[in-house]
Amino acid sequence: MKKDKVSVIIPAYHCAGTIRKAIDSALMQEVPLEVLVIDDCGGEDIEGIVKEYGAEPRLFYVKNEKNLGAAATRNKAARLATGNYLAYLDADDWWEKGKLQKQLLKLQETGDVLCCTARELATPEGNLTGKVIPVHERLTYRELLKHNQINCSSVLIRREAALKFPMEHEDSHEDYITWLRVLKEYGTASGINEPLLKYRLSSQGKSGSKLHSAAMTFKVYRYMGFGMGRSVLCFLSYAAHGIWKYLA
């Protein structure tokens, strides 16, 4: 694990009020890392915020020439990264101390290329709710088809796997498509059932509307090449799990 370096990818778009907490939570991780803040042209002074950290050698700022969206921004950062692992962190979320170290150890133990964690929900103002969304310790492709347990901001993934299966189709849940393709290729992924991710709820993101999110999930199955019948069955399982996740 001593040789491992993590490249933390933080896409920045309309996030000036929350990104400092995300950056701070990344920099406090006790593993070799770099933090790549990719400004996706949201009209805010993200560069100025990064400059507040002075000569922090692990923190880097890159600005897109035009708005690319979250998927293309993450893919760009993956190409720029110098770590052998990538960790995705949305600018309105944050991590517990020790998250990356625990994930690196888990991947060393299992030999998997991807590890995710449970998450605790927070209000838009950043207040923790105590509601925890769990994950299984072993995840398979077949299981993930029924229910996407993998939250993007919780993921640590081998860089070569992320480059092999970049995020595509931003009109759907592009990260879900990537996790499905990764698990189909590599077989299993690891989960740490601890809320090491603090996930801020928001109605402003592209998945904010439950109906819109549901429509994007159905598109995931279609982009995976499934016929209408199989897509409907997968979607019904997704819907049932979604009701349980937020209302249980």
UniProtKB/TrEMBL annotation:
Record SUPFAM superfamilies: Nucleotide-diphospho-sugar transferases
Pfam families attached to this UniProt entry: Glycos_transf_2
Residue ranges annotated for the Glycosyltransferase 2-like domain, each copy included: 7-161
Gene3D superfamilies in alphabetical order: Spore Coat Polysaccharide Biosynthesis Protein SpsA, Chain A
GO molecular function, a single term: hexosyltransferase activity
Domain of life of the organism encoding this protein: Bacteria
CDD domains, per the entry: Glyco_tranf_GTA_type
InterPro entries for the chain: Glyco_trans_2-like, Nucleotide-diphossugar_trans
The protein's name: Glycosyltransferase family 2 protein
